[in-house]
Amino acid sequence: MTRETDPTPYDIAVIGGGINGCGVARDAAGRGARVLLLERGDLAQGTSSASTKLIHGGLRYLEHREFGLVRESLAERERLWAIAPHIIHPLRFVLPWVPGLRPRWMLRLGLFLYDHIGGRHALPPTQGIDLRRHPAGRPLQPGFGKAFLYSDGWVDDARLVILNARDAAERGAEVRTRTDVQRLEREKGGWTIHAQANDGSMPRFRARAVVNAAGPLVLDLLHRAHGETARHMRLVRGSHIVVPRLFDHGFAYFFQLPDGRIFFALPYERDFTLIGTTDRDHQGPVDDVRPAPDEIAYLCDGANRYFRRIITPQDVLWSYAGVRPLVDDGSGKPEAATRGYRLELDAPRGEAPLLSLFGGKITTYRHLAAEAVAMLRPFFPSLPAGDWTAKAALPGGDFPMQGRDRLIADLGCDYPFLDYASTQRIACAYGTRAWEWLDGARDMEALGTHFGHGLTEAELRYLVAREWAVTADDILWRRTKLGLRLDAGQKAHVRDWLGERG
Q: Mean pLDDT for the chain?
């Protein structure tokens, strides 16, 4: 059944519910635009939940002379930390010097630039350490000595997407997930968007402007608007593995490999270590992307060059992969392809604009969104100028950027029946919004069914009602990471509960 969802045109329709699309929707809605956000699956279902989960400048991009991108990314680190201190926090990274790989002077010079070109204020500077005496050296194999300790940030990438969408909705945006855009028609004064929803309906929307934020499918969407396109993207697959914890301290590692590539090993969800990423040109569909067996083996072999505890593919508890839609700059190796972005505005002879977003990285999403809305402002002269998202807290982030420990303590005081692991998880996922759905509960029974590891019916109800969760995967792998902890029966219980809701 085809239906006109709303006869009144939206100002801006954003197609794509990844980090860039949700960032644009938030920015535009906050300026007073009437915004529609369409996503064919779940929010953050693709690349935006499959990152290395870092807010970083990209130290290795200095090798490729991407000084502008590094400067922009470094400037964003503390801005993002300040507006979302529950889901973003600083990390100190250990970079061992390995004879025969990059020389020590090169690492020192790169880290000097890293410290000074991006406006670092709250994050501590680089320092030299001796791994024979430093706690970060204990989990490593013998033989490592000189190393550098530098700062970057960690982010819950999927929740960053969700919170941008939540804020957009609270500022008036209409957010529709599981609504696949089938066709775009440019008409006088705007666009008609033909879509298909999961319930079988085929809604039609109208908008004065369209933002193509479809990520790896950006060219596919252009084809649905214009037919054939001569543009090119480079799709690069990045794969990650999660294994039982390899170290019991709070430092992360930046490791070099003999083939010139690098990878990270990060403390993850208290009891695990996250290792990644690979860079491999991706061919074929971008749905349900998974690491290839040789990529998993590659990451295990890389880790085994450094850590005392040897891991094999059989030790991998979870693996995931995402396809990065990179600007095709002609680079020979996938890891050398730029992580910068390009915005292309198509508005011939004053016709309705179509703005397509190419490339980008999670750290620069907010700046990209502000730039995208600025490009559309000539078509919407009533929209105010400025960069309002630089200081406006994301939902739950309205507390001091270094106040996360106090937030956890306050939540524990108000809800003493929660174990510490659950208190920490809930505080770091929802920030001050946790009090909204805990709603003064005095014991676990007041939160309804307990599915395990602190996941309760009250939280599920909140995720369904306020965060667009529909399936168990939405909840267990994107809204939370409890898929790593719940057993098969507990996961089935979550699925059953969601089925009862539908």
A: 93
